[in-house]
Amino acid sequence: MVVQADDAVFRPVRAGNPFEETVERLLQAIKLGVVVPGDRLPPERELATRLNVSRVTLREAIHALTEAGYVESRRGRYGGTFVNENLPKPRRTPAKRLARDLAGGLDDALTLRFVLETGAAEAAASRTLTPAERDHLERCLAETSAARLADYRRLDSRLHLAIAEVTGSPSLTSAMADVRMRLNELLDAIPLLERNIQHSNEQHRAVVDAILADDPDAARRTMQEHLAGTEALLRAFLE
Amino acid sequence: MVVQADDAVFRPVRAGNPFEETVERLLQAIKLGVVVPGDRLPPERELATRLNVSRVTLREAIHALTEAGYVESRRGRYGGTFVNENLPKPRRTPAKRLARDLAGGLDDALTLRFVLETGAAEAAASRTLTPAERDHLERCLAETSAARLADYRRLDSRLHLAIAEVTGSPSLTSAMADVRMRLNELLDAIPLLERNIQHSNEQHRAVVDAILADDPDAARRTMQEHLAGTEALLRAFLE
DNA sequence: AGTCAATGGACTGGAAACAGACCAATAGAG
DNA sequence: CTCTATTGGTCTGTTTCCAGTCCATTGACT
């Protein structure tokens, strides 16, 4: 009885070599707004330890990102590796090509995202947040609302990630970060409209309010509506 | 503005070396009931490709599992690597020790599990399943109900995994497999009682019924109740 | 002006993982 | 009974990755 479910468990142990994985992870930090332009990355020695990668490998990854224009390094005390003020613009890959590449992966990613994000909103609202956490949420919300169009995707991701953070479950946060990276690639192929942003901001407000009000049902419902919007937008553009 | 959220994105790129990861993955297949005693694993060449690991590394992993008594290999055509009929009993590690090891990881795992499993149940009920999928669910349910005590954990995991499968999202299935492995280690420290199993089987029936009836709300709700039971049990034993 | 701690940069030897080719056994097909 | 396709078992050279060490630079503090 060897079922077809073994696809999930006999999947690749690792997506690429440590070098590629490291590059991807650093890009994740930048593209999801975990580190913003001007921020300093942790020192190489510390970062290498945290990523469980040798310093050599980490340095190669940083070098690649430097060449790609994402970061810059300065030596000496109080030096470090800094995120560039002007990030490279994501190449607008033709949507149809992307859709073909991701193939059935689109439904996969959308399903997982739905489960994780609605679940995170509900879980966040089910806890009583510390003042620091409440403040953090509000701050991320404000920054997203104030974001210029070019920065919107990054700060939007940052806000959603913040919601995952206040669930207190690091694994949940990681999972959301991963699935969001997969979807952002697609979203970058779609033009961002001013009125979409306004609508999005209103929904963000509603979700955060529900979380701060400790109302799990409302949090889940508002998040669900929010996601439905993006999903419809995505599907419309990819067909 | 380097926030504390970087924990999630600067987490280890890989948990261990390819060898360890491969062992872990094969154990996952066995302990979650994806392959049952008597089953043959895919041929080494194919499995190595799917796991994205060299054949040497895969063979070392298989060798380790052979020594541990999980599998046995036979050469020649129609040979292969087979799951043993009598699997090693999981060592009953003292619960308190485990709880200390997992530390805050318990809440982490429980939160993620809750989100994934309730979400999976809902997502599964939101689709119209193919006859094959419906049959698969029923079969897993029946096998779990009929399971002897020693096999229960494996077949229970298998059923929950089957629910994830019928969402059509491989990533969701993988995520559930991972978090379940983390929790099973804890569950193994808890004695399994006959009446707990009966109750569990009734709940399984309710969840599967809701999914087959295309009733997302009921699916989520019944799954939620089911999980609450195990969670309470776990927490009671670990404190 | 001098000091010094923290940080990036560079080098070396060793271990792990890989790719690929080849060998050995086995059981069904003819 | 023989053949042969399939599968596990073995070996070799190469590449990647790692751990550890030392060097070079910088800027705040004294």
TrEMBL record, chains A, B:
Molecular function (Gene Ontology), one example: DNA-binding transcription factor activity
Cited Pfam families: FCD (PF07729), GntR (PF00392)
CDD domains: WHTH_GntR
InterPro entries found in the cross-reference section: GntR_C, TF_FadR/GntR_C, Tscrpt_reg_HTH_GntR, WH-like_DNA-bd_sf, WH_DNA-bd_sf
Gene3D superfamilies: GntR ligand-binding domain-like, Winged helix-like DNA-binding domain superfamily/Winged helix DNA-binding domain
Keywords: DNA-binding, Transcription, Transcription regulation
Ranges of residues in domain HTH gntR-type: 16-86
PANTHER family: GLUCONATE OPERON TRANSCRIPTIONAL REPRESSOR, TRANSCRIPTIONAL REGULATOR, GNTR FAMILY
Annotated protein name in UniProt: FadR family transcriptional regulator
Provenance organism: Kribbella soli
